[in-house]
Amino acid sequence: MNWFRYLLRRLGQYVVVLFGVSLIIFVISRLSGDPVALMVGMDAPEELRESIRSDLGLDEPLIVQYALFMRDAIVLNFGESISMAPGEPAGQLVLSRVVPTIQLTAVAVFFAFGIGVPVGVISAIRQGEYADIGGMTFALLGQSVPSFWVGLMLILFVAVPIDFFPLAGAGSIRHLLLPGLTLSFFMMASIARLTRSNLADVLDEEFVKTARSKGISDLRVYGSHALRNAFIPVLTYAGVQIAYLFGGAVITEQIFAYPGMGRLAIQAIYSRDFPVIQAVVFFAAIMVIIVNFTIDLLYLKLDPRISYGGDR
């Protein structure tokens, strides 16, 4: 029953978020200009333009237009592409790019945790030693350099001299490695610093000293006791950063000519294809909501003191 109430409460919050996103999309699309002028041009006869407005419902009051927009958005119908792929449903066009973006984000998250957490753990265990200094220097650099510079350096010094790494495109795991590393660089460095900071604090706690006094191995102390408690703030930060990865993918996908949602969004903005832009924003919001919900469930797994009903 607690699980059911928790699920309903979270779903209710997500519905409110999607409602706010849809309202923002609707308002911005109406403030950005007349979509009919983009479809037929400024020189088209007024009769033709009025006919198209009537077909699209643009001659209705704004509240009616919003109701029609929400009705279509519920079934992921955002109209047809105006300029990028005229006549093709914008929702289907974005859906074809969702999977590549999810794959790229998954690889970036794998790099961020697979490298950032071990670096942070080693730095916390070896505080003040060369391993700690080297790990935190790497973390500082990772948080200082922009992602586009990292991508360009990887292309120049890795992809160009080594044929194994493709310069652009998609289709295999090799196409994901360099873009994924580029996208994960800032998050990787941040996770390393946060893991080091939290784990160093937890290692000074009494329950860790007690576990050591009982003769429990260091591996079990670090893994089962210390790291599990230190990992909750890291997971919180990661949930926020994964949401930002969808936005950061715009730059990375442009650099590597990767056919994902970010590159599609840039192309749609340049061509003023508003149905496609609306679909990209809506799908991105759904993906962020799924990530946040997954993080909430992981909290419950890591910390049994967190209850579904909110009671301790």
TrEMBL record:
One of the Pfam families matching this protein, by short name: BPD_transp_1
Keyword Translocase: no
Domain of life according to the entry: Archaea
GO cellular component, one term: plasma membrane
Family matches, as SUPFAM superfamilies: MetI-like (SSF161098)
Chain ranges of the ABC transmembrane type-1 domain: 98-299
The family this protein is said to belong to: Belongs to the binding-protein-dependent transport system permease family.
Protein's UniProt name: ABC transporter permease
